[in-house]
Design goal:
single chain; alpha/beta; TIM Barrel; 2 domains; seven-stranded parallel β-sheet; two-stranded parallel ribbon; 11 helices; globular
């Protein structure tokens, strides 16, 4: 456990009484704080048409965070590739890597990061782009390859840069792809925990070594709420639970301060839905968290 690098996923969430500018400023403070504590990286997530999430322009925020930290790796967790041209992604992250060499990660996901109507607006009604995800990942790899110099379409900046590419997923489909391409794999157990262990097993069993990676490398994304006392951590977790409640009931709001849970969450069907999303949510003090998180790897 001591040798496991720890990273943070950020959505630049707007809190009650705040706005997007405040959310971004707090994300900068989070990045600076975790860097001081020795964390490996901070990843920004791409979401669209969500009033209380300020991370839609993911590449822009990555540059903003990298400019205000020293050595922390900063990247995308992830760029939702079907929303973008592979060439644009290669150019954006090639630019980021040029500005902040050795500090940029490119995590790629297949999901839209939004609702279908907004996905159509992003993709200009070409909703079939999700089906070309494997080919688009390989296209980005080609743009980064120094051997692409003879191609008629090239990425500048980008060509010849060693930018780590990750495959992100919340199902076993992504595990097969990451294994086939020999790329590191991050699983979104923080909101879709059901297939975590199955996906990791599939990834490891089917992994094929590549120029980027000789052996399987997995990141499990989970929710962790820590405090000096277990009871305080449980209270802090109510903010997260109410956020998930808003997702399930489509009654989204800014991130609320900790408070006793509403009667709505006590309804059996709602409670079951929330629990299915937070199966890998760990709360407690230091000793409690050590025990709980160790179980994740068993």
């Amino acid at each position: 456990m001591k040798n496991i690098p720890i990273s943070v996923l950020e959505l630049a969430t707007v809190v009650q009484g705040g706005d997007a500018a405040d959310a971004i400023a707090r994300t900068v403070k989070v990045a600076q704080q975790i860097e001081s504590l020795g964390y490996r990286r901070l990843w920004m997530a791409e979401h669209h048409n969500m009033e209380h999430i300020a991370s839609s322009a993911t590449a822009v925020l990555i540059g903003h965070i990298a400019a205000q930290t020293q050595d922390l790796r900063v990247g995308s967790g992830g760029v939702m590739l079907p929303n973008h041209s592979p060439l644009i992604v290669a150019e954006q992250f090639g630019t980021l890597e040029t500005l902040y060499p050795g500090r940029i990660d490119l995590g790629l996901g297949r999901a839209p990061g939004t609702d279908q109507l907004t996905a159509a607006a992003l993709r200009r009604n070409n909703l079939n782009t999700a089906y070309s995800f494997p080919q688009d990942v390989q296209q980005i790899q080609q743009y980064f390859n120094a051997g692409n110099s003879g191609s008629k379409v090239r990425a500048f900046p980008g060509e010849g840069l060693a930018i780590p590419i990750w495959i992100l997923g919340s199902s076993t489909d992504s595990a097969y792809l990451a294994a086939q391409l020999g790329l590191p794999y991050a699983f979104a157990a923080h909101f879709a925990p059901a297939q975590l262990h199955a996906a990791i097993r599939i990834y490891k069993e089917n992994f094929q070594a590549s120029k980027q990676l000789a052996q399987p490398y997995v990141m499990a994304c989970v929710n962790v709420i820590a405090a000096d006392q277990d009871e305080e951590a449980d209270l802090l977790a109510t903010s997260l639970f109410r956020m998930f409640l808003g997702v399930i009931t489509n009654q989204r709001s800014p991130l609320m301060p900790p408070a006793p849970l509403s009667e709505q969450l006590q309804a059996a069907d709602i409670q079951a839905a929330v629990k299915s999303m937070i199966a890998y949510t760990f709360t407690g003090n230091v000793s409690t968290l050590k025990k709980k998180i160790k179980n994740l790897y068993r």
